[in-house]
Specification:
With 141 residues, the protein is an all-alpha fold. It has one domain: Oxygen-evolving enhancer protein 3 (PsbQ), four-helix up-down bundle (Four Helix Bundle (Hemerythrin (Met), subunit A), Up-down Bundle), CATH 1.20.120. The protein is elongated, with a radius of gyration of 16 Å. It starts with a helix and ends with a helix. The structure holds fe (ii) ion (2 copies). One fe (ii) ion binds next to helix 2, helix 3 and helix 4.
Length: 141
């Protein structure tokens, strides 16, 4: 199921963020830098599966325009920019800024993921395309 697979991927991204936040709190900057890259890569990979495969497929049925998919894409770009700011704060070893961006990241991502899990992925499951094929394409991203 697309919904289960993507919901699980949200959890995996959360699990990569938690130890990063802990390293920042302890001002263990070497560890924070080490954890930042896999965390960022996992987030960008998740967004790419949605933007390159799932969302365009959904748009074939529900249309583009300024609907929920448009909102999700806008939120992706906001979250990406916060992830970049977080990386800069870690490089600058600025604990206050890094924790601030981390907090913003968490709030925005939790709200974003909740909307996808409750609305978008449920909508995807109801559309008449081949779910297995789309899942396979997402796994190839
Ligand atoms: Fe998303
Ligand atoms: Fe997502």
């Amino acid at each position: 199921m697309i919904k289960d697979f993507m919901t699980n991927d949200h959890r995996e991204c959360d699990n990569l963020y938690a130890p990063l936040e802990e390293a920042i709190s302890k001002e263990d900057w070497d560890r924070a830098l080490e954890l930042y890259t896999p965390f960022k890569d996992a987030m960008l990979h998740h967004f790419a599966m949605e933007e390159e495969v799932l969302f365009p497929k959904m748009e074939e049925y529900v249309g583009g325009g300024e609907g929920p998919i448009y909102v999700m894409k806008m939120e992706h770009s906001q979250i990406k920019s916060i992830i970049n700011s977080l990386g800069e704060a870690i490089e600058a070893k600025d604990k206050r800024k890094a924790l601030g961006y981390g907090e913003t990241f968490m709030i925005m991502t939790q709200q974003h993921n909740m909307k996808e899990e409750q609305i978008l992925y449920t909508m995807a499951e109801q559309l008449p395309f081949d779910k297995e094929e789309v899942l396979k394409e997402m796994k190839e991203v």
